[in-house]
Specification:
Number of strands: 8
Largest sheet: 3 strands, antiparallel
Distance between the termini: 58 Å
CATH architecture of the largest domain: Orthogonal Bundle
Helix content: 25-40%
Radius of gyration: 19 Å
Number of domains: 2
Strand content: 15-25%
């Protein structure tokens, strides 16, 4: 039997073997330095292939996202750049860079509820994670769970739906807020 195309993963469960067209299904943590560096190289190549300049704000945003474990708001990206040595792009330039990176499918715009969008690298192999958001302090935690991924694909099978992407956000209270150890943020 010929091997499955690169975009298929064979999933084996007791008594069942399935193929899902979702390369993100069988995933390892995406926050390793090696994965982040690979995304950075991929982003620089894609920007060049698209005929865009890689300097200025785009380069600064890519360099910052390479160092991150999870998503950041545009304002968070700008704040981190202000704290770093060297030239700091303006807020409008950061937004333009994020729009260009999103259009090139290099960055995911993550909606965690509320008025602020966040951004994180879109790995070329489909690697992804989900998020838990504390409704009291606003803390965001990256979560990965193979059982959750299985559940998404089992549901898709049950409703005869081909899932091409999914994003799951859990809203609740972090351990510190549930124990009353952190102040509530203003809304």
């Amino acid at each position: 039997m010929a091997p499955a195309p690169f975009f298929f993963r064979e999933l084996t469960a007791p008594m069942v073997t399935r193929r899902y067209p979702d390369p993100a299904f069988d995933h390892a943590p995406v926050t390793t330095a090696r994965e982040r560096a690979a995304w950075g190289r991929h982003a620089e190549q894609a920007i060049g292939y698209a005929g865009l300049r890689a300097g200025g704000a785009r380069r600064a945003v890519v360099e910052l996202l390479v160092k991150q474990d999870c998503c950041l708001s545009a304002r968070g990206i700008r704040s981190a750049q202000v704290a770093a040595p060297g030239a700091t792009p303006g807020m409008a330039s950061v937004y333009r860079a994020l729009d260009a990176l999103t259009d090139l499918h290099l960055v995911h715009k993550v909606d965690l509820g509320g008025a602020v969008a966040r951004y994180e690298p879109a790995h070329p192999d489909g690697e992804h994670h989900h998020h838990a958001v504390c409704r009291d302090c606003g803390a965001v935690v990256a979560i990965e769970d193979d059982a959750l991924e299985w559940a998404v694909h089992r549901l898709a099978d049950r409703i005869a739906y081909q899932v091409v992407a999914h994003d799951i956000t859990l809203h609740g209270r972090c351990a510190a807020c549930a124990a009353g150890k952190t102040p509530r943020r203003s809304r």
